[in-house]
Amino acid sequence: MTDSRYLKRTIIKEQMDSHFLNESRNIRVYLPPGYNEILSYPVVYCQDGEEFFNFGRIATIANRLILDEGAEPFIIVGVEVDTSIRTEEYAPFGQKFDSYMRCFAEEIIPFIEQKYPARQERSSRILAGDSLGGSVSLHLSIRYPQLFTKVISLSGAYYKESQHIYAEENDLSWLDIYMIVGLQETNFETDHGTFDFVELNRETKEMLLDRGATVQYAEKDGRHIWGFWQKELPEALIYFLRA
């Protein structure tokens, strides 16, 4: 049975107008137990923000990690996405990819850091995403290394178009990435083809290691679903947030 303390969560719904996307974007903000505006906090920025909260149960997990497992208190920012255009925003071959990247780095980050006591060192920002959310998080860190050095990738969709971009980098020694993929993800059907996600993650891991990145990598029994990722979230978060 879930401890009732874990269910007492403070989640604020925000809306931000984006010049780059020419629309407003919904954002969810989790504040940790004991939140105090005179303190400062590291922040986990999640792609697919609604799913991280609803299916990943990230707020409940965060409470448990902070209250009982020695995690440093942290803020979570979940950036919501319209699933019908998700590929257009998250994939490098999508028409809205560059606009989304600029929105995230140049609008969402300042919006959060002006409203909340978020630490503004790049080492205190963590990007998190599942599938295409994992690969776009890595794209963001590579395009904006002055902002992001830490990435949580849950079954990242590292298609060849993404791998070509990563391969152009020479030095990724500043990057620290936590990668997990399910062993039953070898024949996953996406909206533009069927892919072996295990092989794509193995290839990307080697590419990142060859360029000096720190890679925490694991393959475990699991499919390309939130039931798998939810179980892996605590270990991924504590990797970066252990006090």
From TrEMBL:
InterPro entries (alphabetical): AB_hydrolase_fold (IPR029058), Esterase-like (IPR000801), Mycobacterial_A85_antigen (IPR050583)
SUPFAM superfamilies given in the database record: alpha/beta-Hydrolases
Pfam families for this protein: Esterase
Coiled coil feature spans: none
UniProt protein name: Acetyl esterase
Organism in which the protein naturally occurs: Paenibacillus pini JCM 16418
Lineage of producing organism: Bacteria, Bacillati, Bacillota, Bacilli, Bacillales
